[in-house]
Amino acid sequence: MGALTVLGVITGLGEAIVVILVVAIASDRLRGDLPLLGSLPDGTWARAALALAVVVVLAASHLGSAWVTARTAAESQQTVRGLLLDAYLRAGAQAQARERTGQLQELVMTGATQVALGTQQAARALTMSFNLVVVVSAAVLVSVWATLGLVAVAVLSVLVVRPFRARTRRMARESAEASSVLATDVTEAATLAPELRVAGVVGAARARLEERVLAARRLFESVHLSAGAVPALMRDVTIAVVIVAVATVASSGEVSLPALGASVLLLLRALSFAQGLSGISAQMQERAANVERIRGFLDRWDASARPDGTRRCARVRRVALRSVSYTYPGGASAALSDVSLALEPGEQIGLVGRTGAGKSTLALVALGLIVPDAGEVLVDDAPLTELRGADWQRRIAWVPQEPRLLTGTARENIHFLREGVRDEAVRVAAEAAGLGPELAAWPDGLDHHVGPGGAALSLGQRQRIVLARALAGEPDLLVLDEPTSALDVHTEVAVRDAIAELRGRTTVVTIAHRLSTLDACDRVAVVDGGRLVALGAPADLAARDSFYREALTLSGLRP
Ligand code: ATP
Ligand code: MG
User: In the predicted model, what is the mean pLDDT of the chain?
Assistant: First the structure.
């Protein structure tokens, strides 16, 4: 800011001096006529040399301004990106899940760049304002008449621009919103492209996108009409004022020809700065709308972030849900109602129930990803919310229902950016998770590339990589949400054995539809309609719980 102010003053001064020197070069009768020129050297070439020297200083200052401006803009882009990423990654799991696909990407890419461009314009506006002030001051010294003309133009331009301002701001806000909707819809269409093709609805999807494109186009046009029309109108007003100003000064006969020439040139230069400022101000309104939008997201995400606890936790033993209830925002009914369940250290517990019963939700609550509306999660008798997040997360692991991978190698996906996970642990975990045949088949073994987001792997391979990721952390609590749903029977048995190996060391919660997965469980909990309806050893449940008994029969296991 300070640098831009100094550079703005220097460039303004430089411009004013060059204008006066050019007039001085063109006229021999200047001495004494212009107050600024009292101490100028005599002779055309001496003045030309001085003017050229000033131009060199001017060029250096312009370069300096451009550098400071570019640097400031780049810094603002980096800062906004950092703020967005921090806020989103720290936000509560529910707040994250509520955002549209691609929303964060759109904000980090387009939104942050718009902020950078806005910053660049603000910096240019600052420099131009100082240019304007200095040039106007020079004009005052040269001729008061010229200044009067300038004041007239300034007043007129403000009057002309005012009605457009509110409208432009509103349009700009709507336009930014429409672009954001378009961007997220495009991301979704790109993700779903194969499904859309198979369903034969590519045309319908294209038509839906076309509507968004059209809406965005209309708003873009309106915003840019306002932004373009204002400077053009100002230009016309300017010409009119210049004509009147020149005619007035010339007919008064009180000003010498060189003073008139210098005044007109300074006046035109000042007007071009004023026009530039007006154009920038219109565009900055558009950018300001974008900043407001980004601030809205940041506030929402920050508000959803859970404050970190302070209690240390070296190991996790008993984890207990106490009267937990939870309804998803906008959910028709409770996903969990008054669920109490204690997970004993080292036990293996299965969760079964109809689809939509609340099993995954229960797992998310136990992991601390969802904060229940009522009730609490206790970790060794202390509320989970009081624990230091980093300690807790180091001791837990999760294999979600939908395995998601980073673009990278199998090793990177198993290691998963964690400090303290050694290479040997990665290899052992990969073997335990049943990836042995793949590691033997891939020429580069663990350094095999999994493709964008794991797209080059089969679902079962992705599942096992995520399982290996969970095992490599040697967790105290491991939550497996259908870890073997995509595996063939042979691979499933191998994985099941590896999980059974953890008995006594790690508390394992396994959610499964295939009851064979739960054979080795110490206890099984049956969830129905968000409630825990039965809990006991598998043999007990087979004897007394109708859902469990039926499920066994349907799986052809045992009645
Ligand atoms: P499945 O066996 O199909 O995985 P589940 O037992 O894991 O089912 P949950 O995913 O826990 O079931 O869902 C429980 C209930 O909460 C369902 O009625 C579901 O529609 C609802 N639900 C799940 N996620 C959300 C969400 N993000 N927003 C709103 N409702 C949700
Ligand atoms: Mg589920």
Answer: 87
Retrieve residue 380's tokens. 């060794």
CA distance 254 to 536: 107
Question: How remote is the CA of residue 466 from the centroid of ligand 1, in Å?
Answer: 21
Give the distance from CA 395 to its chain's centroid. Answer: 29
β-pair partners for 471: none
User: Which residues lie closer than 8 Å to 274 by C-beta, 6 or more apart?
Assistant: 132, 153, 154, 157, 234
Gyration radius of the chain's alpha carbons: 35
- Which of 16-25, 327-336, 351-360 is the least confident region? 16-25
Q: Which positions ≥6 away from 29 have C-beta within 8 Å?
A: 256, 258
What is the average per-residue pLDDT within 378-389? 94
Pair 293, 177: CB distance under 8 Å: yes
**For the sheet containing 374-379, what is the strand order?**
336-343, 319-326, 374-379, 382-383
| Token pair 């906004």: residue | 80
Q: Are 189 and 245 in contact (CB under 8 A)?
A: no
Beta strands 396-399 and 477-481: pairing type?
parallel
Distance CA 109, CA 185 (A): 15
Q: Is the dihedral of CA 85, 86, 90, 95 positive or negative?
A: negative
pLDDT in tens, 141-157: 877 766 676 667 667 66
- Closest C-alpha residue for ligand 1 atom 19: 356
Pocket of ligand 1 (CB under 6 A): 97, 328, 331, 335, 353, 355-361, 401
Higher pLDDT, 94 or 71: 71
**Cα 476 to averaged position of ligand 2 atoms, centre (Å):** 22
